[in-house]
Design the sequence.
């Protein structure tokens, strides 16, 4: 193992920022050269804990710490601003999800990256889609990409294991506001689910979204969403999400011409059809039919390494000169954001929208919501300094 150290700096020491600091401090070939937060006490205490220097301004961290990589873990609106400043300095970026609040900002960020690569050709841009490493999702990707299911016809994902209490929403002034967060469940809880959908199936050509604003919580953003997707190859998709259900469901069905996958409760079942479903439909003389198929449980290595440290580890390996794929290249963040913005734009306009979506139309709606907001946020300060974030991370179970 090389003794070269990749120098990391972190901007944003909230709950997820602390998650990054914990695993970074345990990684070989990594040293933390600075932590940054506008809360000076938070920056100082974490700098002491991790034996590094505190910064209170992102530009100072970028200019003074000597870092190679910056991890951006600040509220969503600030992701593009800090990333662009880093790119212009030739500093590698690991950005927390989502890449941005709206597609216009994401494209601005990606354009800045591509422009900076002309000066710094080895510049790296990664995004933290750690759920791609979860064993069940990785296995789904493997099977779908193999073509074993044949032509895909439907994907239905009910993902309601995102319960958040009113207390959660009250715990931060920026949470669940148009001005502070830019949205609700689609912006905060579901970027991984949206990324997984487009990672498995690609982007649809048409989006029809139905978003309910503050239906179950005292918030001004969406907490329940149902979406319908049409793909160019004829496949349709459904997405049902909310932060208001207990115990909640996480069930994904993927139907193809030659088989079906069902993922739920930590089991991946594969229904292997005796013949092509679409051919049978066209050629059978039977008026009614059913196939009694005993599904096979797919073997999944649940102990395979997964999580945030795996995503960052790939970036470290690449920076050490190893030939390796990143878990998610930064520009891939545009896919999940296109779905999120498209669902909301469709809901705002009360009609289906084409993909690529009209980024200007979505941004105009968002700007108007911010401008016209009369919502008064009730903020309750929690005495718990750093909550255990593990319960908030998505799961494929």
Sequence:
């Amino acid at each position: 193992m090389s003794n070269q150290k990749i120098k990391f700096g972190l901007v944003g020491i909230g709950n997820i920022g602390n998650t990054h600091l914990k695993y970074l401090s345990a990684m070989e070939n990594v040293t933390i050269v600075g932590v940054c937060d506008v809360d000076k006490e938070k920056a100082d205490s974490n700098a002491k804990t991790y034996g590094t220097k505190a910064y209170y301004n992102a530009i100072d961290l970028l200019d003074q710490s000597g870092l190679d990589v910056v991890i951006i873990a600040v509220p969503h609106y600030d992701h593009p601003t800090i990333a662009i400043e880093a790119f212009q300095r030739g500093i590698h970026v690991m950005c927390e999800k989502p890449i941005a609040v709206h597609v216009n900002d994401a494209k601005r960020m990606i354009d800045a990256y591509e422009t900076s690569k002309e000066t710094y050709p080895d510049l790296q841009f990664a995004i933290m889609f750690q759920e791609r490493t979860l064993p069940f999702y990785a296995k789904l990707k493997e099977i779908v990409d193999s073509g074993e299911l044949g032509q895909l016809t439907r994907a239905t994902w009910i993902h309601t294991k995102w319960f958040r209490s009113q207390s959660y929403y009250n715990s931060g002034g920026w949470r669940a506001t148009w001005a502070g967060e830019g949205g609700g469940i689609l912006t905060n809880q579901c970027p991984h689910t949206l990324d997984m959908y487009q990672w498995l199936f690609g982007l649809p050509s048409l989006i029809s979204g139905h978003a309910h604003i503050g239906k179950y919580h005292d918030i001004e953003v969406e907490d329940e969403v149902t979406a319908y997707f049409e793909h160019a190859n004829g496949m349709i998709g459904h997405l049902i999400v909310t932060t208001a259900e207990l115990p909640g469901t996480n069930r994904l069905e993927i139907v193809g011409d030659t088989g079906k996958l069902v993922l739920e409760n930590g089991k991946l079942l594969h229904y292997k059809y005796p013949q092509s479903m679409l051919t049978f439909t066209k050629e059978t003389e039977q008026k009614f039919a059913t196939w009694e198929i005993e599904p096979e449980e797919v073997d999944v290595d649940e102990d395979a390494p997964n999580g945030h440290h795996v995503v960052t580890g790939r970036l470290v390996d690449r920076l050490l000169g190893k030939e390796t794929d990143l878990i998610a290249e930064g520009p891939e963040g545009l896919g999940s954001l296109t779905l999120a913005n498209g669902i909301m734009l469709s809901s705002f306009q009360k009609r289906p929208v084409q993909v690529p979506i009209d980024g200007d139309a979505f941004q105009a709606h968002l700007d108007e919501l911010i401008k016209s907001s009369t919502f008064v946020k009730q903020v309750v300060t929690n005495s718990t300094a750093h909550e255990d974030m593990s319960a908030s991370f998505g799961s494929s179970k």
Q: What stands out?
A: The mean pLDDT is 95. DSSP finds twelve helices and 15 strands in the chain. The first helix runs from residue 15 to 24. The CA atoms of residues 162 and 189 lie 7 Å apart.
